[in-house]
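Before the break, one more example. Copy the sequence into your notebook; we will annotate it together after we see the structure.
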Amino acid sequence: MAFASSAAGDPLAAVFLREKDLESFRNAVVALDGGFPFTSADMISLGEAYFKKYPDRTHDRNMEDVRLGYEIVRIAVIEKAVAGFDGVRKDAYRAVLGDVAKVASTVAALHRSLGSSSLSADCVLLRSALEAIKATIDEIPKGMIKERFVGGISNLFNILYVLKMTIDRMEKETA
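Here is what the structure looks like once it is written out:
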């Protein structure tokens, strides 16, 4: 039973197998405050845990399970990406990356308190964190696990683009 030993050695896989639903998984991962290993082997273990709970099939795929896989990836990636920020900014970027609809209001609030240059610097840090995580995802062999990770992080790059555009617009409006 190689799966059980790899999942037991990976905090995220163990958390995922232990938690009863997505929200409890999210809360448990957030409580780790980014302090979990996230190598390609850890990602594979998390993917194996996910497929153990939600087996995939090639015909009559359950698209809700696929979306759940993307969300599990986003939860973990977001926590790693925001790990270097302080509490208020961490919560703000966590909210933005979790819901693109929160970009405008969150950036406006951060702009008032931090200013444009800090927001732009934060955007560079977020992009750097996501690119590092993407490089690790690229190490995962082709297959369903990699597909879930690529799908999950792609959404975050799209949100980061909207975040950057919003910051740039605010810089122009206040210049």
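Confidence is low (pLDDT under 50) at residues 1-9. Residues 92 and 106 are 6 Å apart (CA to CA). Try to locate both features in your own notes.
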